[in-house]
Amino acid sequence: MMAVTHGRHVPRTRVRLDEHVPVDHRLSRVYRAGAGIFGAFLIAFGVLGLMHRIGFFGTGGDTVIGLNTNGALSTLSIVFGALLLVGAVVGGNRASTLNMIIGIGFVLSGFVNLALLRTDYNVLAFQLQNVMFSFVVGVVLMTFGMYGRVSGRLPHDNPYWKARNPGS
Fold this sequence. Notes:
Keywords: Membrane, Transmembrane, Transmembrane helix. By secondary structure, the protein is mainly alpha-helical. Helix content is 57%, strand content 7%. The chain is built from 5 helices and 4 strands, in the order E-E-H-E-E-H-H-H-H. A hairpin with a 2-residue loop joins strand 3 (63-64) and strand 4. Residues 17-24 have low confidence and may be disordered.
């Protein structure tokens, strides 16, 4: 299959973006910062929630740092915080992809838990402030993950632009 680029025919090849970005590329700092900041916050939130000895699936309205929580939500926060911290340590495209995936998960969680508010299925004890937190953290994590990778106007020296435009 051939692609037309600036009037020339260039063979299309499947390009893996992580092959073209050096490990120490400056964008990696952005991905690491996003993963590290939110990972540390989620772990702190989870640990504080577990320290309050709240029931695992309790819906009694216990709050930590202004957010409603229970043992299950605290445990999930620690797990996802640890994943983000691992991404911060690894860096590079793995951190970027992890930020995007977990960010999407937070946004989806916000929608699901918004639908479950005030029902018996609200096992994570979400309240409206938790839903809003999920939306905000999800969008910010996605932004950290997509920074420099997703745009219609990437500069021509950007490694992602180069990978998408071989031969230019």
